[in-house]
Design brief:
Helix 1 crosses helix 6 (119-145), helix 4 crosses helix 8 (175-181) and helix 5 (97-113) runs antiparallel to helix 6 (119-145). The protein is mainly alpha-helical and 250 residues long. The protein has ten helices and three strands; from the N terminus they run αααααααααβββα. It has two domains: 10-200, Four Helix Bundle (Hemerythrin (Met), subunit A), CATH 1.20.120; 204-243, no CATH class. Strands 1-2-3 form a three-stranded antiparallel beta sheet, with no helix packed on it. The chain is globular and about 55 Å long. The termini are far apart.
């Protein structure tokens, strides 16, 4: 499919698309801002909520990986210079697999946090953000690929995956490149999971021993942490803390 990166269509120039262009350029770190709320607000977590959250994260990342493997690392670019229209693999099931995967991943983190009242707000925030970003992306693809993209758009759903109606194009998947490009994403997951684990430890109450005390006092506005005068970083104190059974983890 021939690409014309210099072409700019009317759908790319709408107000929604222009707002989406700004969000598109900053889409990598915007979700981290909203995760600050479930990180600092009090919530009630449990092993079951961790299981549900981790399941959503794994499913979401699998969808992301399938999208990156099909489209290549071009998915991480911030420019409108698109060389090819990918319509095979996961893209034959849904037009925006990376955003579908992202949505499931971040809903998984909110579920793990136990701040369930924030779930509807998170759904709304992501719906608005991704709707505007997709308006911009669809305008770009329509400008560049014309009728080829319009036909693909007509046959493939935007958000809810479904099996393709007709036999789809067969294309190559770059799994090795996909995994390499996702390393920074995996590190973000690890940091966030550690942060939510620490939060669950603090919400469990006070951990007391002969030589160390750590308490977390939670209120409607957030939390504060108090430590005893003896350093928690001393080896014997760390060993005591790690030996305590966490009621929120399996």
């Amino acid at each position: 499919m021939t690409a014309d990166p210099n072409s700019v269509g009317a759908s790319e120039q709408t107000i929604a698309a222009q707002i989406g262009a700004v969000l598109f350029r900053h889409r990598g770190w915007l979700p981290l801002l909203f995760l600050g709320i479930p990180l600092v607000m009090p919530g009630s977590t449990s092993p079951f909520r961790w299981q549900i959250g981790l399941t959503l994260i794994v499913i979401g990342e699998a969808i992301r990986l399938a999208g990156v493997a099909a489209a290549g690392t071009v998915t991480r670019r911030r420019s409108r210079n698109v060389q090819r229209l990918v319509t095979y693999g996961i893209f034959a099931w849904v037009r925006n697999p990376l955003y579908v995967g992202n949505f499931l991943i971040w809903m998984g983190f909110v579920t793990i946090s136990g701040v369930l009242w924030f779930l509807p707000a998170a759904v709304l925030l992501f719906a608005v953000e991704y709707e505007l970003i997709v308006r911009y992306e669809e305008g770009v693809l329509e400008s560049i690929f014309g009728r080829d993209y319009l036909d693909y758009k007509h046959d493939t759903p935007r958000w809810i995956p479904r099996p393709p109606k007709t036999q789809t194009q067969v294309g190559e998947h770059y799994w090795s490149e996909a995994f390499k490009s996702e390393i920074s994403t995996f590190l973000q997951y690890a940091v966030l999971l550690l942060a939510f684990w620490i939060k669950s430890r603090m919400m469990a109450g006070c951990v007391k021993g002969e030589t160390v005390t750590s308490c977390a006092a939670w209120g409607s506005g957030g939390f504060s942490i108090k430590f005893s005068t003896q350093s928690v970083l001393e080896p014997k104190n760390l060993a005591f803390i790690l030996s305590q059974k966490d009621p929120y983890m399996c």
